[in-house]
Amino acid sequence: MDSPDAPSSEHVKPREVPYCGFCSLPPEYCEFGPTLDKCKQWLSKNDKVLYAILYNTLDDQLAAASLNETPEDDKKKAKEAAKIEKQMQKKMQSKVLIKRIERTKRKCVTSVFGLENFDVDLKKAAKLFANKFACGSSVTKNNQGNDEIVVQGDVSDEIFDLILEHWPIVPEDNIDLIEDKKKGK
Amino acid sequence: MESDWTREQPRTYSCKELGPWGLFNIKEDVTGHTQVKSSVQRAIRAKILEQYKEGIEGIIDDVMPKKAPLILMKCHEHINLIVMNNEVLFFNHFDGPYFPTLKLLHKYPNMLPRLQVDRGAIKFVMAGANIMCPGLTSKGARMDVSVPADAVVAITAEGKNEILAVGTTKMSTDDIKRINKNIGVETAHYLNDYLWKTVVDI
Ligand SMILES: [Zn+2]
């Protein structure tokens, strides 16, 4: 009765399934999503082994399968792909600024700007920062009328790490750390 | 109200039971979330244990740590999401059976019995279609387990390692083979639906 993968009383470790960094599917399913080209680009950069496994053999099958697809399917796919790509491009160009602003010689605040470009709920982010650093944190409008999060204290590096950990969609390269020192210190 | 989303669904989609994941939007469709009392948490845990028995006994403490707070998110169409550590673990409809999410199933694929559809069915399933019997009995399909009707099953696919969807059998696997027409498995949650894309951040 016992099959080899029958659940046993032994501790079962969770499997770690890698997901596509572009479309979020398990990479083997990217071929059924609308952004295959971009997914392939991502995988070829990030997991060469899996890329070789998935696409060296798969290309022939795809060529055969696409013969069965109607031009309408293709058009719809292309349109959807273009839309998603446009959104992604916008996202990938958006910057998150973490700014250390000196208020007095010893006191400073940290402002975080641009998280909303990555669909982060700013109020929740502010709450998270407040909890993590046990300090005041709030969403305020800046001079340009855009929302930013202001955290009491110098926590730039911690926020940098926290953003990477908590919102992996934000690329590390898009986060800029800047210091705004008082003039004539 | 209803015609709004039925219009958008592919013709093959007939599952209204679990609501329109196709248009589900965490920002608009979640009507509220609460951290449940520990007695409620115990009851939910007991129900999930009761439902999946051997499939989950060994892992329940990892999946739902006793000390972690359990968040119940209520959505439109009477769908409830069970959330822990910002991860949706299970969902159900009214007080119906709990379905594990695909992200949880990818971690613990042995939780549910698995049926395999042929490659041709993948794109329909990923468009929200229910699974017709022939998709489970053709050459590329596999049904190595025997499952009664109304069971929660995981759907894998020909040539793929990862689980593609989760749903409920509309007839037993024996009947799927014997009758070989109509809906075999009603799809509740599939790769790339809105639940899949949902990121919870409380
Ligand atoms: Zn992809």
Automatic annotation (TrEMBL), chain A:
One Gene Ontology cellular component annotation held by this UniProt entry: cytoplasm
KW Ribosomal protein (keyword) present: yes
Annotated GO MF terms: mRNA binding; translation initiation factor activity
GO BP: formation of translation preinitiation complex; translation reinitiation
Record bears the keyword Ribosomal protein: yes
All residue ranges annotated as the SUI1 domain in the record: 96-167
Family annotation (Pfam families): DENR_N, SUI1
Source organism, top-level taxon: Eukaryota
Intracellular or extracellular location(s): Cytoplasm
Record's keyword terms, sorted: Cytoplasm, Ribonucleoprotein, Ribosomal protein
Similarity comment: Belongs to the DENR family.
The record's note on its domains: The SUI1 domain may be involved in RNA binding.
NCBIfam families: DRP1
Subunit structure: Interacts with the 40S ribosomal subunit.
Protein name from the UniProt record: Translation machinery-associated protein 22
Organism: Mortierella hygrophila
Taxonomy of the source species: Eukaryota, Fungi, Fungi incertae sedis, Mucoromycota, Mortierellomycotina
Automatic annotation (TrEMBL), chain B:
Gene Ontology molecular-function annotations: RNA binding
Subcellular location: Cytoplasm
InterPro entries cross-referenced by the UniProt entry: MCT-1/Tma20 (IPR016437), Pre-PUA (IPR041366), PUA (IPR002478), PUA-like_sf (IPR015947), Uncharacterised_CHP00451 (IPR004521)
Domain PUA: 113-192
Keywords of this entry: Cytoplasm
UniProt xrefs under Gene3D superfamilies: 3.10.400.20
UniProt xrefs under SUPFAM superfamilies: PUA domain-like
Swiss-Prot/TrEMBL GO biological process terms: formation of translation preinitiation complex
CC annotations in GO: cytoplasm
UniProt keyword Cytoplasm, yes or no: yes
Coiled coil (UniProt feature): none
Superkingdom of this protein's organism: Eukaryota
Job description of the protein: Involved in translation.
PANTHER family assigned to the protein according to its UniProt record, in alphabetical order: MALIGNANT T-CELL-AMPLIFIED SEQUENCE 1, MCT-1 PROTEIN
Family: Belongs to the TMA20 family.
UniProt name for this protein: Translation machinery-associated protein 20
